[in-house]
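Sequence in, structure out.
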Amino acid sequence: MAGVTVGKRAEISFTVAAVDTAEALGSGDLPVLATPRAIAWVEAASCAAVGDVLDSDQTTVGTHVEIDHLLPSWVGAVVIADAMVAEVSGRRLRFQVRLMDAEQRVLLAGSVVRAIVNRDKFV
């Protein structure tokens, strides 16, 4: 846990596929990136931001998500999920998250809170 510091970040690139759409996931009926998938992608970036500094018996679990989905993304679009550690409070980590398109337009923005847990004791 000592290695998790404010400012630590990660970016992950994704290509929107038909299975990622609101239509496919049932969160709407349009063939655009579904909010639940976008949240999963920024959570993946949050995990990546701290995964290399946690002890081998530790992982993080999501506890709170607060986002604004601002712009649509269509099938075939490349998007970048970005997460930065904004606050460390004991085992609680708050990340500032964004999803951006190739033109650096912010498609989604907000925060994700994750808690550090012992992976063996959590299950």
